[in-house]
Amino acid sequence: PSLHDKIRGLNSASAMSDFSAVAAVFAADGPLARAIPGYRVRPQQLEMAERIAAAIQDNRVLVTEAGTGTGKTFAYLVPALLSGGKVIVSTGTKNLQDQLFQRDLPAVREALKVSASIALLKGRANYVCHYHLERAVADGRFQSRAEAGHIRSIARFAKTSKSGDKGQLGTVPEDSAAWAAATSTRENCLGQECPQHKDCFVLAARRQALAADIVVVNHHLFFADVILRDDGLGELLPACNTVIFDEAHQLPEVAGLFFGESVGTGQLVDLARDTRLEAVAGAKDYLPLQDATRTVEKAARDLRLAVAAENARLAATQLAHDDSFQPALQLLAEELTGFCKHLESQAARSEGLGNCLQRALELAARLKRWRTLEDATQVRWVEVFSHALALNLTPLDVAEIFRKQLEGHPRAWVFTSATLAVGSDFTHYRSELGLDQASTDCGYWGSPFDYAANSLLYVPTGMPDPNSFDYPEAVMEAAYPAIVAAGGRAFVLCTSLRAMRRIHGLLQERLARDGVDFPLLLQGEGAKAELLARFRSLGNAVLVASQSFWEGVDVRGEALSLVVIDKLPFAPPDDPVLAARIEQLRKAGKNPFMDYQLPRTVISMKQGAGRLIRDESDRGVLMVCDPRLVNKPYGRKVWQSLPPMRRSREIADVVAFFAAPAQGAGKLPQ
pTM value? Predict the structure, then answer.
């Protein structure tokens, strides 16, 4: 039979056992090779695709790590499209979500000549809300002329757009406050009571997703919907045959976020603002409600001001006897109770006020639970931002909760990422998500790139203890000659914002003093996408950044030739969630460092290192300044999990690497 006969025969779960069609798709003369420019046969990609096809056929759980360059996206899209069932693909970021829906899925579908329908589903905050946009335009109160202009642009976009997806309106910055006024949240959506219900972009996206064969979502949406049954996955999941998680290393943290609970001062301020708008329209004659919105908003802002820290995570016990925090928390609870009573007396006057009452009661209940809950399985903690504060309840272990999501209707679950294993061992990842070893299949494929010939792992000598006060100075001094040798073209990735700012300042002084003209960029000086675009176009820039640039960043070619990592990315031991988990593991007789902290650090290091080589023609140096990589026994576990680079401790080798093309792999130290 012809290839397309085989493919047609493969378009059912019962026929997935014929893997010859899968192999034919990835062949040198197959449909992908004919349709995709630059396509190359990769044995790892075919093996991965066949394992995924088998998991889909047998409704099994499969955990896979595929190194950079394996082509894991096509490796899961081909069997997904050929399976004939309904598939949910969940990604780590909205950018990857858009890439899958707009580029990869259509390309593979066209190559295979299959008729599977595809849909994109995002969280409701990504879609323009006609109701809230109309009220924002009518209200007309904005903090700047730019913001007012953004609202007008959104209003024009809403009249012509078929999807209402804000990602399609590039003229309004993603971080513009206008979007908050022009979109809805789970809390302030009026649902079927909304006068614009029939034109709702969110409902249109849900309908398309329900009808589609392949639905692309992201992890936050997946968990929000599975737990809250909010944006459509509550209906999608029961009908689904396969769930594929890409960038699956993010799942434990995202699951912890959504299986927990939070109440933030920002939510309360938004509630107060929305209630004021609804009260003007529906209860203008009841002034006490207007007054109550202002008092609850002030109490929320005062709670943030009661904590002197900024960008910090604090255990509830650290604030248990705080003379500023506790009175402010008590006052907020009292003001919120009074606010609820005023709202209750007016809620029947409009759908909007009724919705605000439900939000207020839910936030009051969460606040009460946070103040009174004594549960050994959860940790209470506070996260402090520049202008807001969140009270969080986080489960210490999501494994049992997540395991329940895998039960019920038989379906395949595929977890894939470039960084899930420690070495090639998936024990840590499986235990975090409760993936039973007996029923979970695992697959590991290293990168096809020639790291030994095209990269170097450099650990400088003479570095002080990473916890010493002057460590950022030592990092800059060690990294500076490597940056000069690389001609700029560097990421300097830091494990804290404090270190990032300090190293940036020191580099700025040194470059100016020496008259070295490398553009120096700093995370936070602009949006992430804007900074990356500048970095790529400049060609010799140095970007100093922290955690948000450790993953999901793709700079191919010579523009990025050096990645400097200041420290092994161990989470701060005083982090309240980590501290509680460490204590829980100790009580269970486990070794918290070896069983939990080190595996998480290895996975994070692999993510940071993965920024360097993004294409088979890329060359570069990974510089890890932390001496623990070589002088601590556990350091071996870290570097053995990294790609097989040549290794050196001499800056002369770095200079020589950049001075001439690599002449072969060289001998790897054992």
Answer: 0.87
